[in-house]
Specification:
The structure is a single chain. By secondary structure, this protein is an alpha+beta fold. It folds into two domains: 2-7 and 49-77 and 109-277 and 313-417, Up-down Bundle (Outer membrane efflux proteins (OEP)), CATH 1.20.1600; 81-108 and 279-312. 66% of the residues lie in helices and 10% in strands. The protein has helices spanning 2-13, 45-54, 57-76, 111-179, 185-219, 243-253, 255-276, 314-379, 385-417, and strands at residues 42-43, 83-89, 99-108, 228-229, 282-291, 296-305. The strands form two sheets. Strands 2-3-5-6 form a four-stranded antiparallel sheet, with no helix packed on it. Strand 5 and strand 6 (296-305) form a beta hairpin. It is elongated.
């Protein structure tokens, strides 16, 4: 009897009995990256991006989500386990033990259901992989934008410090002229006002620079950031691309569009899965018993399935179709939002580019030459302090405007290169 039961097991399922303990291989544990040793050094943009990616917990979570979905694909395609039990009938009839033995019960699922379950899970793996790519772009964008703020802050502080030193030197020279009666005291007061106003701007610039450094330290998982960054990135400027070429690149590579498209694809497979749900699974049961009265071995077979009369899964089917329509419109919504975002970004990029080109042309050279000439004339007495003050104001305004244009160019370029992903 037991030999017959084992042969039935092997013939029906083709599964060796020594595979009950098989399990999936778990992913290797994530090893945290080594600590960054900060000191007196200059960081380049690639170094900052690499370190930020290595220390982003969001990326680690996204990678774990991909691994989780891959394991769920395996689980969704497994057959249901059989059930083995003890069965007894007619026990005590005519003082006999009746029929006693074992039974084997198995649910035979419709093959298309298991196949569609696996397909849906595979689509979820694709969605998780694209979400991982989106998180990588977000991390790169945050690192680049933070790097730009630190570089701009460093140059702004250096520029205002040079201006502060120039104003303080002018105050000393004007004070000696006031003492000699060469210029009125109002010139000294005006110089002191300008120096204090610039000092206030310098204090604000230093605070902004420290905040940007602290933000970069947070991305690097360090208590503070005391190093310097390579500011030559601000001098590397490129013209804004054409709208059509930029949109073609975004349309084919944007992780937001790819995620929305894959969600729509998954919704289509869910509709198919719900449509085959009314096809009933087959419930089978085999029994093998020993009849004590006749000493015969008795076998029994039971086969049953549900008849979809009252519940044909129509509610779930219509719900899946509605979700399919929603994801279809969601793809178009994402494309529309990305188009608007691209138009706004290219608009800011174009304005910053035009401003930078104007500043880098005659305007910056004229402001610098004017300041040099007026300073020379002032110290020999051929120019008044008001003329020197106006020349300094013009030069510093042009320098700050150029720096603002470089900042905007670097920011918009970084956003385009990271596919306009939403940055927190």
């Amino acid at each position: 009897m037991w030999r017959l039961l084992i042969m039935t097991w092997v013939l029906l399922w083709g599964i060796p009995l020594n595979t009950w303990g098989d399990d999936l291989t778990l992913p290797a544990p994530v090893v945290p990256p080594a600590e960054v040793v900060t000191g007196s050094r200059e960081w380049s943009l690639p170094e900052v991006v690499e370190q930020c990616l290595a220390r982003d917990p969001g990326l680690q979570a996204a990678r774990a989500a991909v691994a989780r979905q891959r394991h769920l694909v395996y689980q969704a395609t497994r057959r249901q386990n059989p059930a083995i039990g003890y069965a007894a009938a007619e026990v005590g009839q005519e003082g006999q033990a009746g029929q006693q033995g074992v039974y084997l019960q198995q649910t035979l699922r419709v093959p298309s259901k298991r196949h569609l379950d696996g397909t849906i899970r595979e689509r979820e793996v694709s969605i998780a992989s694209r979400q991982l790519a989106l998180q990588e772009y977000v991390s790169i964008a945050v690192a680049r934008l933070t790097f730009v703020e630190v570089a701009v802050g460093s140059r702004r502080v250096a520029l205002l410090e040079r201006l502060q030193a120039s104003l303080e030197g002018a105050i000393k020279g004007i004070r000696s002229q006031v003492d000699g009666g060469e210029v009125p005291r109002s010139a000294l007061l005006q110089a002191q006002i300008e120096a204090r106003r610039n000092h206030i701007g310098l204090t604000r610039a230093r605070a902004s620079y420290r905040a940007a450094c602290q933000q970069l330290a947070g991305l690097l998982k360090q208590p503070r950031f005391d190093d310097q960054v390579d500011t030559k990135l601000l001098d590397t400027t490129t013209a804004p691309p054409e709208y059509d070429s930029a949109w073609a690149m975004l349309e084919s590579s944007s992780p937001e569009i790819l995620i929305a498209a894959m969600q729509h694809n998954r919704a289509g497979w869910v509709v198919r899965r719900q449509q085959v749900e009314p096809i009933s699974d087959v419930q089978t049961q085999w029994t093998l018993q020993q009849d004590a009265a006749t000493n015969f071995t008795v076998a029994g077979i039971q086969v049953s399935f549900e008849v979809p009369i009252y519940d044909k899964n129509r509610g779930a089917i219509h719900s899946a179709r509605a979700e399919n329509r929603r994801t279809h419109h969601q793809v178009e919504s994402v494309r529309r939002a990305l188009r608007l975002r691209l138009a706004q970004t290219l608009g800011r990029y174009q304005q910053a580019w035009q401003q930078f080109q104007a500043m880098q042309g005659d305007l910056q050279s004229l402001a610098k030459e004017n300041l040099t000439v007026v300073e020379s004339d002032f110290w020999v007495g051929d120019a008044t302090y008001l003329e020197l003050l106006n020349a300094q104001r013009s030069f510093i305004a042009v320098s700050l405007d150029t720096l603002d244009a470089q900042r905007e160019l670097a920011r918009e370029s970084a956003r385009l290169e990271t596919l306009l992903v939403p940055v927190p």
